[in-house]
Amino acid sequence: MDLLLHFRAFVRVAELGGFSAAARALNTSQPAVSRQVADLEARLGARLLHRSSTGVSLTEEGRAFLDAARQALDSADGALGAVGARRGEVAGEVRLGAPLAFGRLHIVPRLPALLERHLGLSLDLVLGDAFGDLVQDGLDATIRIGVVTDPGLIVRRIGLTRRVTVASPAYLAKAGAPRHPDDLAKHDCLRFAGLSTGDTWVFERAGEVARVPVTGRFRASASDAVRTAVLAGMGIFVAPVWLFGPEIASGEVVTLLEDWAPPAVPIQVATSSRRQVPPRVRAVTDHLAAEFRLDPLLTDYGMG
Amino acid sequence: MDLLLHFRAFVRVAELGGFSAAARALNTSQPAVSRQVADLEARLGARLLHRSSTGVSLTEEGRAFLDAARQALDSADGALGAVGARRGEVAGEVRLGAPLAFGRLHIVPRLPALLERHLGLSLDLVLGDAFGDLVQDGLDATIRIGVVTDPGLIVRRIGLTRRVTVASPAYLAKAGAPRHPDDLAKHDCLRFAGLSTGDTWVFERAGEVARVPVTGRFRASASDAVRTAVLAGMGIFVAPVWLFGPEIASGEVVTLLEDWAPPAVPIQVATSSRRQVPPRVRAVTDHLAAEFRLDPLLTDYGMG
DNA sequence: TTGCCCCCATACGCTTTGCGGATGGGCCGG
DNA sequence: CCGGCCCATCCGCAAAGCGTATGGGGGCAA
């Protein structure tokens, strides 16, 4: 009986709250997971889960075992990594979450160098602007832009997003350019549902702060969609500078209100605080942090 | 691939210095062990062992992996025990080493209560007066009588062996009784090869110390054999009181030089300091310690 | 030096473990 | 009341992994 396999099955079932869900996550069949947990319970001589037709919940024994099993899995993982770590190598799969547009524009282009450097490494990039639960999605780490306050997470700052007010020349030709943040009230402001700031935009100029409630006829939950809207001349947007790097340089979009700066937001990587970060995950986040530090769009240090 | 099984195989091979020896210890075949380690190396992409026809030795990678694998095995073991531990139960097998005579006389009779109390527990008692290597013999713990100075061991005192000078009435009728330790030089003194004191016997009386070099025509490496020799009237012996408990009470052997006491020696249980003591082992040693504390032959506290 | 024994690697046939698909009972939501 | 999702169980089959048998290599003793 492969203990670790059984441990993993149980842990996944406990995390996802069901045998079927765990089976999908583990790329196996539901009967297999069911049997593995049942065998484990037989071996331990105790019920780990309360079953119901709607799902499962942990028993007291299950709760105690869950932590121990997690630790055992981590230890085994560490043992496998110990050999490679001695040579500065990392191997294994890393599931990384990231916002859709940011991932497409700034993570994917930086992965070839990483994968070439660590030949045993494989990456599973889970893109989405809706941040789910780290553990529910089985992610090793996730990139988040903005402030994170989840106490179950360890966050590490790996970059900074300055933001600028942008619009396309076509829109400006039609609607004119704002001279002051207050002018935005008369404009079509494109809104991104993923920002915690809501529909009030904030600007700063030499200590002076302007809060502007904005309105507009388009709102999207994916920044990539808002990006397309800007390019299509649908309105004004306060965008991360990295969202329009080439377009600003080429003049395809122009920046407005340049002396009024929206507050910058941190780019962070979040990992679960329950388990220590394995070397393979560390390698990925370190690589991204190092790369971002060199990109003037993603850092406040180097303004090359 | 059952990782833990492979880990265990490798650890055993590393500890015992050979595939064949490990196979014997693991109750499996040599090819199985050979393949498991080979598969592990393939998985890790590194050689863990240097092979030679005379045995194996660890590579650098192997040394690093050995610790990690041990820890993983301990973690997995801990996970299995976590459920039972919540209920104060222990389960699993414990391999306990003990001196032959002591084990027979004072450990075996105390095991039924232990096994009845912990139904999931099974014991493998390895008896022998020659103390081997704890890890080489795959022992969880070993009982040692006398001072232990191995830095790789954690020793815990679980009793005290007072000693007395004894002989059978038949011998005394033939050779007379000594009045003073010095008289022993003229007697047949039975010697036990397992004692570190060698062939000089030490006695104490009110701070006064007598060291007597003794001679005799019988010597054995098992205290059980010396015990039989005493009963057969072959000579005088300085024996642990627990070796002749009933016989002294019945008069089958008599104590001599009662005001001259040989130094007492501790009864200790030794466990490896490399890994923490699992609950199942703890349960065994605790049980023995508690039992010994109640036996006037094995403690200096209760002289009931 | 020669012969023997013990060591480890490999090949092969077979058992056994363990998988996935199918089925059945149970509960919730529409 | 019915459809869908859940979990447990049964069954046929394939692959993993065992042990036996065999071969090469080196130390040790005669």
UniProtKB/TrEMBL annotation, chains A, B:
It comes from the Bacteria. The keyword Chloroplast does not apply. Keywords: DNA-binding, Transcription, Transcription regulation. PROSITE patterns: HTH_LYSR. Residues 1-59 form the HTH lysR-type domain. Belongs to the LysR transcriptional regulatory family. PANTHER family: HTH-TYPE TRANSCRIPTIONAL REGULATOR, TRANSCRIPTIONAL REGULATOR. This is LysR family transcriptional regulator. It comes from Paracraurococcus ruber.
